Amino acid sequence: MVISKGVVLLHAMIGYGVNNLCMGLSTLNPPISFGHQINDPVSVSVVFGTTDSRSHLKALSQLSRLLGDSDFIKELAGCYSRDELLELINIKINSKPRKI
Questions:
Q1: pLDDT tens, position by position, for the chain (100 residues)?
Q2: What single-letter DSSP state applies at residue 95?
């Protein structure tokens, strides 16, 4: 499902072959159209799987915060390795939200 401008969430339902809580992120170049009138094309793909209705809530909350950060989405394009991506995620997850 395309969840925001340029971002798609690919997920498995509970009970459909997921053995462990898992998440993956890929950048797509060139971006791909999923048929969404407003948020296509997609350049960020997140894959998410969970084994129950509770264990993933913290991860989903953190993911939501990341994907709501337009700077994070732009900075993804500058990540060329797994280590760079993990460093960016750690910086963003551990930073305090700014008060407006």
A1: 898 888 898 887 777 888 888 888 888 889 999 999 999 999 889 888 888 888 778 888 888 888 888 888 888 877 888 899 899 988 888 875 555 4
A2: S
b/e code 41-70 from CB counts within 10 Å (16+ = b) = ebbbbbebbbeeeeebeeeeeebeebbeee
* Chain-centre distance for alpha carbon 17: 21
Task: Give dist(CA 99, CA 77) in Å, integer.
Answer: 26
Q: Which residue has the tokens 């009138």?
A: 37
Angle at 81 between CA 75 and CA 86, to 5 degrees: 65
Alpha-carbon span 35 to 77, nearest angstrom: 22
Q: Which of 74, 75, 70 is nearest to 86 (CA)?
A: 75
Whole-structure pTM value: 0.74
Nearest to 5 by CA among 57, 47, 40, 37: 40
